[in-house]
Specification:
By secondary structure, the chain is mainly beta. It has 2 helices and 9 strands, in the order H-E-E-E-E-E-E-E-E-E-H. Strands 1, 2, 3, 4, 5, 6, 7, 8 and 9 form a 9-stranded mixed β-sheet that branches. The longest helix has 13 residues.
């Protein structure tokens, strides 16, 4: 009885979200052009089967995971060939053979090319740091990178930006990422 009570307390504490824990969430800032904003939402990762083998994808979705779909995007996304990485510091660059590819996307009406409005930027320099991979499958870390890209809509053109923040990502099935068009 006493052992059962100890196990019950240990399991309930492990599942609690402390003040310092994000448990499947992220917080950070994104800058696109002269506009900076605080962002937070769901942090999830998966490993997709791609044409050249497995591809690890970490998605930081502003608001809810399902707020980003084929019509509207608002996320920071990291990709690289291979399985889930271990703890370490990884470069962010536009060469996926040697670093993580990072994207900042904030686009409305993405499914209507003539009406789409927003920005898509690719990381050109920075770091993705994974500080812990726990036994429950969570990835804990931080990121900071600068990016370049394009703005579409009434004020189309080249745009620069940046992103930084912390995350505690949970695993999500590959089918979820595919359903979102990612």
């Amino acid at each position: 009885m006493r052992l059962s009570l100890v196990l019950l307390v240990a399991l309930s504490v492990a599942g609690c979200d402390s003040d310092d824990s994000l448990l499947g969430e992220f917080v950070g800032t994104t800058e696109i052009g002269s506009q900076a904003r605080a962002v937070d939402g769901e942090a999830v990762y998966t490993v997709l089967d791609g044409p050249n083998g497995p591809e690890f994808v970490l998605g930081l979705f502003v608001g809810d995971l399902y707020d980003s779909d084929l019509d509207a995007y608002d996320y920071v996304l990291f990709r690289r060939p291979g399985d889930r990485p271990g703890a370490g510091a990884y470069g962010v660059d536009n060469d996926p053979d040697r670093a993580f590819n990072a994207t900042i996307a904030r686009v409305e009406d993405a499914d209507e090319p003539l009406e789409a409005e927003g920005s898509v930027l690719n990381g050109v320099d920075g770091t993705l740091a994974i500080t812990r991979v726990d036994g429950y499958g969570f990835l804990v870390g931080s990121y900071e990178f600068i990016a370049e890209g394009v703005r579409v809509g009434p004020s189309s053109g080249f745009v620069e930006g940046a992103a930084r923040g912390t995350f505690e990502a949970r695993y999500e099935s590959p089918s979820t990422f595919r359903a979102l068009g990612l």
